[in-house]
Write a structure and sequence with these properties.
Length: about 450
């Protein structure tokens, strides 16, 4: 189905397709097409190319900057391509790119299997795996893109190809981490599955922001000692319950049993000496497959976000950003995650041979969510202030979350110079006429 700009319901459709409500206010494609099969995606791309119309892709519209929306062209929505076929014996699944992580993990759990989906249930594999995919149990399973063996896609010429490490190996390389710099339409993934950790255990403790130096010291020790299945997160921003400036320490462990997971978090149950509690530790046991529901962010909001990788301990990142804990609003936070000793850089543990070529042992995501347009400036400035405070510690950025549109050099920070050069060469080869609108600068 093709819906053109100006048709009844077109603006509502854009608002439904894009998570950040600011984006459709600023940009609009000429038309949206809603294919239901790979063949229909290919036909839509061929028709657009014939008309000289450029093409943008949408999986679930969860890019924080609304990257799928451009001010021109045809938006091809991959969202309806969401089939799931599970082969429990070979531990492989074939999925449509539009499948959402929450649905996938529930279906896999029925077979005692799992995949490193993203932290929120509504994010589709589409753009998430394409960007790299830093999801649950990262310390054990690594990035999602390291857990795919084949990627079905439609090229700018409208051809359907399946890229693997042996066939179309250069497209397979690029699709593992290029994110919005990719130059084909991904329609499906073949996934490597893992044994489902039956249980997860979460400890959530909020401290007064003034305790930051004590917490930072404690985090340096706890982070270094944590098991690879423990995700250690430090949230800097107003406490969700009281609104007071807070540092919230969240530790998540997964294991075969609740007791096993709880045991791994024993060191996180003691408070940092000298720190002032805002709320005592909340302990929660839940099935692993329920984790995405546990940490979901609210939809229907105005959003500004950014992200940096770092090789510094998260205690250092906390010291650098604690002064921003007052935050512009309760739903805004700087989220520091110790990545269980894994780094995404090739040659390092967890590194892959793909476009996901920079990384770090920690990730700092900066998320501001709010309601009224009158508050835009305050929130955007807070995100920029956090990004500036983290700059001395930065080893790169993650193309899946960083604001690559804010400045021309941003995209280059998401890749090594070699990987960026290779992406440019491959785009010139596979999409010489620039059919796909992507975030690689035009002509680059
Ligand atoms: C609430 C929330 C939670 C998140 N949690 C995580 C997380 O835990 N880990 C993580 O790594 N990231 C996370 N992200 C970031 C998210 O993974 C990326 O923004 C990703 O792009 C979302 O995928 P999407 O399909 O919705 O992308 P969309 O917003 O639909 O598209 C963004 C861009 O990706 C490209 N793209 C998307 N689909 C395709 C396709 N099929 N073929 C070719 N190009 C395509 C296009 O360039 C498009 O412009 C989260 C985002 C949100 C909003």
């Amino acid at each position: 189905m093709l819906i053109e700009r100006g048709a009844p319901g077109f603006d509502d459709l854009l608002r439904r397709l894009i998570w950040n409500v600011r984006s459709p206010e600023r940009r609009s494609p000429d038309a949206v097409v809603l294919p239901v099969s790979t063949e229909e995606v290919a036909a839509a791309i061929r028709d657009a190319a014939r008309r000289g119309q450029r093409v943008a892709l949408r999986g679930s519209g969860h890019n924080y900057q609304g990257a799928a929306l451009r001010d021109e062209g045809l938006l091809v929505d991959i969202g309806a391509l969401d089939r799931v076929e599970i082969d429990a014996v070979s531990r492989r699944a074939r999925v449509g790119a539009g499948v959402k992580g929450g649905r996938l993990i529930r279906q896999l759990a029925g077979h005692g299997l799992a995949f490193p989906i993203g932290h929120c249930a509504d994010v589709a594999l589409s753009g998430y795996v394409l960007a790299g995919g830093i999801g649950w149990n990262y310390g054990e399973w690594g990035p999602a893109c390291a857990n795919v063996t084949a990627i079905e896609m439609v090229t700018a010429a409208g051809e359907i190809v399946v890229a693997t490490a042996d066939e179309f190996a250069d497209l397979f390389w690029a699709a593992r981490g290029a994110g919005c710099a990719f130059f084909a339409a991904v329609t499906g993934y073949e996934l490597v599955l893992h044994e489902l950790p039956a249980a997860a255990f979460v400890v959530d403790t909020a401290f007064d922001a003034g305790s930051a130096p004590h917490i930072a010291e404690w985090l340096d020790t706890a982070g270094a000692a944590a098991d690879s299945t423990v995700e250690l997160i430090c949230l800097i921003g107003p406490d969700v319950h009281t609104g007071r400036p807070a540092i919230t320490v969240r530790a998540v462990a997964s294991a075969g049993s609740v007791e096993g997971a709880r045991k791994k978090l024993a060191p996180m149950l003691s408070s940092p000496p000298g720190a002032t509690l805002l709320r005592p530790a909340e302990l929660k046991a839940l099935p692993f497959a329920d984790l995405p529901g546990f940490s979901s962010l609210p939809g229907g909001k105005r959003v500004a976000a950014d992200q940096v990788w770092s090789d510094h301990p998260i205690g250092d990142l906390l010291r650098a950003t604690a002064h921003l804990a007052e935050g512009p609003q309760r739903s805004s936070a700087i989220s520091l995650t110790a990545l269980g000793g894994r780094a995404t850089t090739p040659g390092m543990p967890g590194g892959i041979d793909g476009a996901l070529s920079v990384g770090g042992t920690a990730s700092a995501g900066i998320y501001a969510l709010w309601d009224g347009a009158e508050d835009d400036r305050r929130h955007v400035e807070w995100v920029a202030a956090a990004d500036a405070a983290l700059a001395p510690f930065r080893s790169g950025r993650y193309v899946g979350e960083a604001d690559v549109f804010v400045a021309p050099d941003r995209l280059a920070q998401c890749f090594t110079p070699h990987a960026l050069g290779r992406l440019r060469e491959l785009r010139a080869r596979y999409d010489p006429d620039g059919v796909f609108l992507n975030c690689l600068p035009a002509g680059g």
